[in-house]
Specification:
The complex is a heterodimer of chains A (about 300) and B (about 260). Chain A is built from 14 helices and no strands. Chain A has about 300 residues and is mainly α. Chain A has one domain (about 1-295): ABC transporter involved in vitamin B12 uptake, BtuC (Orthogonal Bundle), CATH 1.10.3470. The chains are: A mainly alpha (about 300), B alpha/beta (about 260). The interface of A and B includes residues 161 and 309 of A. Chain B: InterPro entries: AAA+_ATPase, ABC_transporter-like_ATP-bd, ABC_transporter-like_CS, Metal_Ion_Import_ABC, P-loop_NTPase.
């Protein structure tokens, strides 16, 4: 089957799989550190940066769209958004969710306004900007796919190196700080990884849906395991599968937006996990509950050390 | 080598009489509400200290401010004669059980091993020796059989003992515990009390936020009576008097006017 695919499709497949692996690995810690909403704000806050960078490029006479410039703009305004959230929660009494909501909509609104300015420009290339919102894999070049591969490796490397530190800060930040770990800097490393995945994934999945690719694979992985090590691995697997299958489907049926298909694939895997995972899945839980009810009705069980609620 | 020696935490000899913990003028406010006001206190050379006071008296905040988890408006903290930042290796901590998510995908042994992370250092894996030390700590609180259990599958008391074991794994000199006996079952209470007595006999200092006035005199040799300000401190027998209790619990200092 793979043999039938053209070189271009293989490139896209590889790139999307690598992106999925990277987001699964990074997303696991983001989810456990409860940074999912902040990351959503981060991805939405990239839009004004993208449009602004395009305008800046047009001003200085850069032809069409220069990808590095656009991604730099995306990263800059995304980070600015996160800093704004941190400043609001630190210096005011507003709760974090309010700060996230305010920053997300403000930055996204600004981005839409700038986008309409871009579209009014006589210079071409404005159409390409819209792909950042919903994503597009069809145009992926070999170099971009290789870049996504490097990203996946980098994410895996950083997480492997800082595994213990990331785990500690995610589980118990206070204890980490009492031991003298620089929790703020460890969080910063995690946010840098999230930013990297977001910005690099913008073109493929789009800024609205990239957060789904960061959250869904680890959330699905949690159903299968009680250990962080395997959760990272399973999330990488589910993320990679989502990227690969999604990109393949969108290549097979033209006009299917890749980002949406990738995210829907991830959601399908999530739903399967939610239902069928052996211990934490819904069916297993329902089955255990019914069996227990039956056993209690027959008087077969007594309360003792063996049960989790005994002891 | 020199570098290594310098980075070792410093414990002065007992004869020098340097207190394990010296707090000077510690003041903390949440927004405009004063929570701790000008708290100065010197911990005893060794033994078990109960921090008592009514709800909202700032007991937990006192621990957190001493440990640098809450930014103070004023005040300094010295551990064995040096700023806390340089003596972190000497400090062990048992936070309140509610402060973490127990559905986190780690086993009891994983959590206890976290007490060794500082010794292990950046980027290194938990070696077999450290794992063994963690297992030993779990054993000391009677939880060795549950080492591989995911922490969410433990009862509240067992979770409390896991936190205690993690602090033991730190092999610290000065311990801070936030209500380790609050709402625990009888087995856990026994385990906690055993550990406290052990630490005491090893010459450690343990500072415990404690809520149960009935048991203070049975367990703790020293008390720090706190209600935003220090009301009294010293050996339990001398300090836990009716007059001091009235002064600590009789009024709500947290109803004090807001700061400007």
């Amino acid at each position: 089957m793979i043999g039938d695919l053209g070189f271009n499709t293989l490139v896209v497949l590889f790139g999307a799989t690598a992106l999925g692996i990277a987001s699964g690995v990074v997303g696991t810690f983001m989810l456990l550190r409860r940074r999912a909403l902040v990351s959503d704000a981060l991805s939405h806050a990239t839009l004004p940066g993208i449009a602004g960078a395009f305008l800046l490029g047009a001003w200085f006479g850069v032809e069409g769209r220069s990808l590095p410039l656009l991604l730099a703009g995306a990263a800059a305004s995304g980070v600015l958004g996160v800093l704004a959230i941190q400043a609001i929660t630190r210096w005011t009494r507003l709760p974090e969710d309010a700060a996230i909501g305010a920053v997300l909509s403000c930055f996204f609104g600004l981005g839409i306004v700038l986008l309409s300015v871009v579209q009014g420009l006589p210079t071409g290339g404005a159409a390409g900007i819209k792909t950042f919102i919903f994503g597009q894999t069809a145009a992926m070049r070999a170099a971009e796919a290789a870049g996504l591969g490097v990203l996946a490796l980098l994410a895996a490397l950083v997480v492997a190196l800082l595994f213990k530190e990331l785990k500690l800060v995610a589980f118990d930040e206070g204890f980490a700080r009492v031991q003298g770990w620089p929790a703020g800097r460890i969080d910063l490393a995690l946010m840098a990884l999230v930013t990297l995945v977001t910005v690099v994934g913008l073109q493929t999945v789009g800024l609205i849906l990239i957060i789904a690719l960061l959250i869904t694979p680890p959330a699905a992985a949690r159903f299968w395991t009680d250990s962080l090590e395997s959760m990272v691995g399973i999330a990488a697997l589910i993320g990679g599968l989502s990227g690969g299958i999604g990109a393949w489907l969108s290549a097979k049926y033209e006009d299917m937006p890749a980002g949406a298909v990738i995210v829907l694939t991830a959601t399908a895997l999530f739903t399967l996990s939610l239902l069928f995972a052996p211990k934490r899945g819904l069916l297993a839980q329902t089955w255990r509950y019914r069996r227990l009810r039956g056993a209690i009705a027959r008087g077969d069980v007594t309360l003792g050390e063996g049960t989790p609620w005994g002891a | 080598m020199l570098q290594r020696l310098r980075s070792l935490d410093f414990i002065p000899p007992k004869e020098a009489g340097v207190s394990p913990l010296l707090v000077k003028g510690l003041t903390v406010a949440y927004h405009r509400r004063p929570v701790l006001w000008d708290v100065s206190w010197t911990a005893p050379q060794q033994g078990l200290v109960a921090v008592v006071g009514p709800n909202g008296a700032g007991k937990s905040t006192f621990l957190k401010a001493v440990l640098g988890l809450v930014p103070p408006l004023a005040g300094t903290v010295e551990v064995f004669g040096r700023p806390l930042a340089r003596q972190r290796r000497l400090v062990g901590y048992v936070p309140q059980r509610e402060s973490v998510d127990w559905d986190f995908p780690v086993s009891a042994l994983d959590v206890v091993a976290m007490g060794r992370y500082r010794m292990i250092g950046w980027g290194r894996r938990v070696s077999k020796a450290h794992r063994q030390a963690a297992l030993h700590a779990l054993d000391r609180v009677g939880m060795a059989d549950f080492a591989n259990r995911q922490i969410g599958q433990l009862s509240g008391g067992q979770q409390q003992r896991v936190f205690l074991a993690r602090a033991l794994a730190q092999e610290a000199r000065l311990y801070f515990m936030d209500e380790p006996l609050a709402g625990v079952d009888a087995a856990t209470e026994r385990a906690v009390l055993d550990v406290l007595r052990d630490l005491d006999s090893q010459g450690r200092t343990v500072v415990c936020v404690h809520h149960d006035l009935q048991t203070v005199a049975d367990v703790f040799d020293h008390v720090l009576m706190l209600n935003v300000k220090v009301v009294a401190s010293g050996p339990t027998r001398e300090v836990l008097t009716d007059a001091n209790l009235r002064a600590t619990y009789g009024h709500r200092a947290s109803d004090a006017p807001l700061l400007p």
